[in-house]
Specification:
By secondary structure, the chain is an all-alpha fold. The chain has one domain: 434 Repressor (Amino-terminal Domain) (Orthogonal Bundle). It is built from five helices and no strands. Helix 2 crosses helix 4 and helix 4 packs antiparallel against helix 5. It starts with a helix and ends with a helix. It comes from Paenibacillus alginolyticus. This is Helix-turn-helix transcriptional regulator. Keywords: DNA-binding. InterPro entries: Cro/C1-type_HTH, Lambda_DNA-bd_dom_sf, TransReg_Diox_bact_type.
Length: 70
């Protein structure tokens, strides 16, 4: 599964808007929107901030999606 697909799935499961997730993670809406739509890949720091904001327990698996987009 691609990072952007997993991100959207997790965000929707928690009933978060892109803006709300961006606020929690300290990431701008426009960057987050580009990540979720697959236009850009997040840096490790951004992926980690998203994992923390989404309260993901297995962060390594989530981060590996960011490193391996396919």
């Amino acid at each position: 599964m691609a990072f952007h697909t997993k991100l959207k799935e997790l965000r929707q499961q928690q009933n978060l808007t892109l803006r709300k997730l961006g606020e929690k993670a300290g990431i701008s809406y426009s960057i987050l929107n580009s990540i979720e739509n697959g236009r850009i890949e997040p840096s490790k720091d951004v992926a980690l901030a998203l994992a923390i904001a989404l309260k993901i327990e297995d962060r390594e698996e989530f981060l590996s999606l960011a490193r391996n987009p396919f």
